[in-house]
Write a structure and sequence with these properties.
The structure is a homodimer of 428-residue chains.
Chain A lengths: L3 H12 L13 E5 L2 E4 L4 E4 L12 H11 L11 H11 L8 E5 L2 H16 L3 E5 L29 E4 L13 H16 L4 E6 L17 H9 L3 E5 L14 H4 L6 E4 L10 E5 L1 H8 L12 H16 L2 H22 L3 E7 L2 E9 L4 E2 L1 H13 L2 E2 L1 E3 L5 E3 L8 H16 L6
Parallel strand pairs in A: 3-14, 5-6, 5-7, 7-8, 8-9
Antiparallel strand pairs in A: 1-2, 2-3, 4-10, 9-10, 11-12, 12-13, 15-16
Helix pairs in contact in A: 2-9, 3-9, 4-8, 5-6, 10-12
């Protein structure tokens, strides 16, 4: 087995420069089960970060579904198969009746790439608005949505994209969402005036990449009203926020009080098997598909659908949405207690199994403790707890574990975090 | 189980309009093994069409690799893992030394989307040239390469694409490739003059979608020379032509006498598990990745790499490239014999396990027998043999079976084809 050093050398040689790893001392993982991961030295880690293995690493139901179908038939949608139909029926049974039709893809990137073209097809316009602190995928078109990492190349597509300030409940409260709506309205106005025209607003309805600001239920209503009034589409990218992650609803857009025109799915959809999808009203799908026989060779294949179906079944059978709510509430309590002991915790946020704390050097000025947050994450990693950071200042702990995360797991996480925060050698 | 009629109704309802199926009477498949498929009524079909299950439907080695890794660990490349490195090492050991670095994706579309941006990154220009009878994928950018099915929407990206006549050895012979090279040179000239600039030529090196014209080895040399002289990149999309399909080489670009700047992989790479990739020189990968931390959540995950590795192992262990050559040569002999009996066969082409015949109503005028070809394919389907048609006139039988296809399988195919061609009720 290659050493960590050798792995890093070989990655640079075989995969090229600028390939991200997590942590100062990158992890070499070899095994996973539920909320646990093991490295090459046999060391065990509590996974508080990975949302792709939504129903747990190597979930037996999902593995069994993949093995069964992979050994029975794997082909494409130009032949008829029940798997894709049963899956779309079950998926759309969880959504508003207007979201009744789906296109299955292999990644959230492919799904967002379709969603943006749906907006162009419906509106005849090309202007897309997103927040300035998010990410929606990696195609030439979709990568333009990630303002902090826009490719240096991209066939000039940047001309169609506009950004608004990401919501920030801690530093710039906007409790009823009207400021956000006004900022979007301003960008729409600009797009209409400069001739680009407004096609769509794309948001993660719980703003996970933006640091999951503390927004009251129904917060997206004002901006949705602006989007509809001006003839654009509301695209909700539920790649991170969906499938019950927030604990209160299956889809975060329900929590935020809106029904999107297009819902985009990805990462957790099949627990790591490459599956993504777009759900929309039949008319919107028809607008996209008219004059274009979109076909995705792997998209909606029987194995992918079996894996995705097993995820929905597991969420239901194990009551994972309710678990997210219960454990999430417990985690917030434990974080509140930690905040009474550690001045560095400036703000606590989250819902269900997406939660975290913003680290500050001073609670009054709210100055971000970004470097400190980095040290905390690395210290946690060395104590066997895996998580990350995010937000505009990269000073928010990002805790987003597999959905079977328990109160015991939360206790281990917060006991360890308590130790790390008490280690004065790390302090800002 | 839903009836075929119900499946079609449910597809239109759940998947939207304009979703392709094969055959007048679409197939409802439920099981696959090797070169065989079974429908819902238990009827067995010889698969002479599907290249995605490259090493055979439900290949035991691939299924075992997927099950083993899916039950051990499935995560992303921000952690270290040997799987992706071992795979890229083995893959690049099959290519020219200059093709030494890879980015793994989930689909050929994602891979082509990267390849085009690599060309923009290296050249600083955006003009892309392809043939007028091909397809390279489905993203907003890549779908512009498929002239016969360009989406009605696409953020104006069509402005960067130019097309040249696909090679056609039957109707417009160009035995040394200089006419093709001259057509490409003309388009390059136009791109440079109109200010777009020339970035890349994208071709399937064996021109599968174009009807795999009968071109001598080394045929791409003149056009490659033009591309290099004018500072563009040669992108070889080996999604269909690679992994030994042509029988003579692992990669069709070797057969055609060139080394591409970027090689694109997809469909057969992991036997249907969603895997694609781009292989290029380290400098080209660096040009793309500089200033852009491209990351693909599912791309290069341990399960995908295990599946892809099993495909390479199976190709080697079973001698599938040599098998493609032997069985392909035998198939051509059998087709030649059929041509002496059936006037409708106008031209016979192919190499290895991509082969077929062009159907004409008149051997002198070479008038395409397109409707007849359609009837032949449907008749074969009803006799238990699955294949399709392609080419500009949709009159070329497209025979592209899984690589373990045997002489016995070829006998069954041609015996059945002989019967169908003898059925005068189908004739033009």
């Amino acid at each position: 087995m290659r050493s960590t050093e050798q792995l890093l050398v070989d990655r640079a040689r075989l995969m090229g420069p600028n390939v991200s790893t997590f942590y100062d001392d990158p992890l070499h993982l070899v095994r996973g089960e539920g909320v646990w991961l093991w490295d090459a030295d046999g060391r065990k880690y509590l996974d508080c970060y990975n949302n792709v293995p939504h129903v747990g690493h190597c979930n037996p139901r999902v593995v069994e579904a993949i093995c069964r179908q992979a050994s029975t038939l794997n082909t494409h949608t130009r032949y008829l198969h029940e798997g894709i139909l049963s899956y779309i029926e079950r998926l759309t049974a969880t959504t508003d009746a207007s979201l009744d039709t789906a296109i299955l893809t292999c990644t959230g990137s492919e799904a967002n790439d379709i969603a943006l073209r749906m907006a162009e097809a419906v509106t005849g316009k090309r202007g897309i608005i997103a927040t300035d602190a998010t990410y929606h995928g990696n195609t030439a078109l979709v990568s333009q949505l990630g303002k902090s990492n826009i490719p240096t190349v991209g066939f000039g597509l940047g001309q169609f994209f506009r950004f608004v300030d990401a919501p920030d409940s801690y530093r710039h409260p906007d409790p009823d969402g009207t400021t956000f709506a006004a900022h979007v309205a301003q960008q729409i106005d600009g797009l209409e005036k400069d001739g680009t025209g407004f096609a769509a607003l794309v948001v993660c309805p719980y703003f996970l990449n933006e640091g999951f600001p503390d927004l009251p239920d129904g917060w997206l209503k004002p901006v949705a009203e602006v989007v509809r009034r001006t003839g654009g589409l509301l695209i909700c990218d539920e790649v991170q926020s969906g499938f019950g992650r927030t604990g209160t609803h299956m889809w975060a857009h329900e929590k935020m009080g809106v029904v999107p025109d297009v819902m985009v799915l990805g990462k957790p959809m099949a627990n790591g098997h490459p599956v993504g999808g777009v759900v929309a009203n039949h008319d919107i799908v028809a607008a996209f598909r008219t004059g274009y026989r979109y076909f995705n060779t792997f998209g909606g294949n029987p194995v992918s659908c079996a894996a995705a179906m097993a995820v929905l079944e597991e969420i239901d059978d194990k009551g994972l949405v309710a678990n997210a709510q219960t454990v999430g509430a417990y985690a917030r309590e434990r974080m509140q207690k930690l905040a009474t002991q550690h001045e560095v915790i400036g703000d606590i946020r989250g819902s269900g199994l997406i939660f975290g704390a913003e680290m500050v050097t001073d609670r009054t000025t709210k100055a971000p403790a970004s470097d400190f947050t980095d040290r905390v994450i690395n210290a946690l990693r060395h104590r066997g707890v895996i998580l990350s950071k995010l937000g505009r200042h990269k000073n928010t702990l990002k805790i987003r574990p597999p959905m079977p995360f328990s109160k015991d797991n939360a206790d281990l996480l917060f006991d360890t975090l308590d130790e790390v925060l008490a280690d004065t050698s790390l302090h800002p």
